[in-house]
Amino acid sequence: MSIKLEHVNYIYSPGTAYEKKALSDICLEIPHGEFVGIIGHTGSGKSTLTQHLNGLIRATSGTVWYNGENIYGEGYDMKKLRGQVGLVFQYPEHQLFEVDVLTDVCFGPKNQGLSPKECEQRAAQALRLVGLKEKYWKSSPFELSGGQKRRAAIAGVLAMRPGVLVLDEPTAGLDPKGRDEILDQIAYLHRQSDMTVILVSHSMEDIAKYADRIIVMNKGQILYNDTPKQVFSHYQELEKIGLAAPQVTYIMHDIREAGFDVGVTATTVEEAADEIMEAVKKRRGIG
Ligand SMILES: Nc1ncnc2c1ncn2[C@@H]1O[C@H](COP(=O)(O)OP(=O)(O)OP(=O)(O)O)[C@@H](O)[C@H]1O
Fold it and tell me: What is the CATH number of domain 2-245?
């Protein structure tokens, strides 16, 4: 069970004056159940890449495999794929369009052919999972706050019970509290199920906190595809392309410069604190 991209290239408006190569020779495998972070600056190709994962856009050349099947193969069921690889768009407005939240969240399961009763059950469960209170279920999606709209959009995808949840900047425009709530909820869902989560973000801090693996995109190519520790060990190269490693990486660098024997690959404050404690103990000859 996995997603695999082989030599994927994508060109917008080929053969016109607006031609733009957005992806160059992307080779990538995401095993089932992983929490993957995709990071890169504006225009690096993150959204274009994620839209290939559920067949929303078709590679100009190259192949996408889902669970060992070529999604461009003859007779491949794209509709089924879209239920299995759920994509939450960068702007929730792009996927909320029904008269009320509950009807909206029912849309996906209805499309999958479930009965109205099953759809409502799935929708109610998904809305509870994302923490959207019942008093909002009969509201128009457009009356909701930014954070509530995100939750409704995520619920709409979860109601289809996807094997893969792809979230394109799910916290853009939210305040820090709203951002943490949504990301913690997603991390909780990931722990509770065997769902693969692919999170596109601008924030190294967020990615470092949640992802097992980080894909760094630059100019339509994959620059790094590795564990957070390995990726952040290239913090100087990341800076050169305008991406900062998490702050904790720089703090550890300064502590190391001050003569303490710490690494520079801690990805969380907790990990850094443990390393500093060990280094201080070592220097003082304790333990
Ligand atoms: N519909 C389109 N037509 C033409 N070019 C496009 C289109 N969508 C994106 N592009 C271009 O393709 C490249 C990759 O864009 P993409 O949106 O995938 O990047 P991104 O990393 O997701 O950016 P952001 O962080 O701003 O969302 C950019 O140069 C962008 O301008």
Answer: 3.40.50.300
